[in-house]
Amino acid sequence: MFFKDIIGQEEAKQKFILEVKEGRIPHAQLLCGPEGVGKLPLAIAYARYICCTDKGENDACGKCPSCIKFNKLVHPDLHFVYPVVKKKSGKDVVSDDYISEWRSFILANPYFGLSHWLNEMGAENAQALIYAKESDEIVRKLSLKSSEGGYKVMIIWLPEKMHVVCANKLLKLLEEPPEKTVFLLISEAPELILQTILSRTQRLNIRKLDESSITEALQSKFGLQQQDAENVARLSNGSFVKAMETIHLSEDNKLFFELFVNLMRLSYQRKLREMKLWSEQVAAMGRERQKNFLEYCQRMIRENFIYNFRQRDLIYMSNEEMNFSSRFAPFVNERNVMGIMNELSEAQAHVEQNVNPKMIFFDFSLKMIVLLKQ
After folding, report:
1. Where are the alpha helices (DSSP H) in 83-210?
2. 99 alpha carbon, distance to own chain's centre
3. 179-183, 191-195, 246-250, 290-294: which has the minimum mean pLDDT?
């Protein structure tokens, strides 16, 4: 991954390049932003540029021994930490237990979300975490001398998934890291990270991608026509991951749309028996998919509320979603929109707390009966 491979984000690229050129590389940076904006590719390109022994004006050379190792993400001074799931043995695992899958996954497509990584690991119903044991691995790796005599780079993807024991052990390293050590933390929910870790990092907010950058990338990577690429870019809301999902019409998106439509219809018609079956269907999905579904519901409620204002340029829905919303949107209004969003947020919190999912989703569907009538 080079800077030239990254979609948009010119401001962040120039910041990183200037830091390296001027020799003022911060020892710990926190890259924050929504899914699909290129935080991980940026971090990898930055690490490559730091380690490159024959740097160009705006990118790594691609030919030196360091760059050749980066091509396969096997540079001995590049380390990754990311959420993983326990294997059948039940023992705590560390990132390196999945390192082959991780490298292959990133090299195939560096733009992805947690749900995609969970599918790659075959997580099923398990929740991914950065376990307490990981801290010992981090300490061990960074205590070793640099193999190439330069910088060591530790990229931590989704530190908000870090076990509190691991996070606390990391504090000392972040405060007093070994010489020529760089931490790059990549977060989509910085509010969930320990405040003591936040205070030890330099925060950089990575913005949503602009539509023109997404349009250009879709044309070059997938061969879309100009108009089709522009339509997808507008629906993506600044996320290249969402743009790719729109193109490929992922099975999850189709399922979530069908579940959302069924819930709204059944709740409005007060079909309790069918609602109970609906809740059991959602409960059978893994927790991560349940959380993704609730996020999808929040987006659809928000889009339907905006739909009522007839501001088409502010609406981000597919044609299928738009067709449904043309009839459903009037039922989402000033009297109930906050109530529905609050119930969705509460359901998300209960999923996180491992409450019985059948109870969560049946209870939510019952509340929708009342809310849709307001």
Report:
1. 99-108, 114-121, 134-143, 164-175, 195-198
2. 19
3. 246-250
pLDDT digits (tens, 9 = 90+) for 237-256: 899 998 888 776 556 778 89
77: its two tokens: 């001074």
Amino acid letter, 301: I
Are 222 and 189 within 8 A, CB to CB? no
Give the list of residues 6+ apart from residue 165 with CB closer than 8 angstroms, or none: 132, 135
Location of structure tokens 């409005």: 268
CB 26 within 8 A of CB 200: no
Nearest CA-CA partner of 181 in 221, 155, 148, 154: 154
Q: Tell me which residue of 147, 148, 141 sits closest to 178, measured CA to CA.
A: 141
CA dihedral of residues 357, 342, 192, 296 (deg, nearest 10): 70
**What integer pLDDT is reported at residue 124 of this predicted model?**
65
Q: Tell how far CA 188 is from the center of its chain.
A: 6
| pLDDT tier for residue 373 given thresholds of 50, 70 and 90 | confident
Residues in the chain: 374
- Helix and strand totals (H; E) in the chain: 17, 5
- What is the distance between the alpha carbons of residues 52 and 318, in angstroms, rounded to a whole number? 43
d(CA 363, CA 53): 59
- CA pair distance 255, 278, nearest whole angstrom: 12
- Tokens 């959602």 correspond to 282
Residue pair 263/368 in contact by the 8 Å Cβ criterion: yes
Tell me the two tokens of residue 276: 């109970």
Question: Which residue type sits at 364?
Answer: F
7 burial level (CB within 10 Å; 0-12, 13-18, 19+): buried
Q: Is the dihedral of CA 35, 36, 39, 44 positive or negative?
A: positive
Residue in 44, 106, 127 with CA at minimum distance from that of residue 79: 44
Q: How far apart are CA 83 and CA 164, in angstroms?
A: 13
- Specify the pTM: 0.73
Partners of 154 in the β-ladder: 79, 183
Q: Is 162 helix (H, G, I), strand (E, B) or coil?
A: strand
Counting beta carbons within 10 angstroms of the beta carbon of residue 246, is it exposed (0 to 12), middle (13 to 18) or buried (19 or more)?
buried
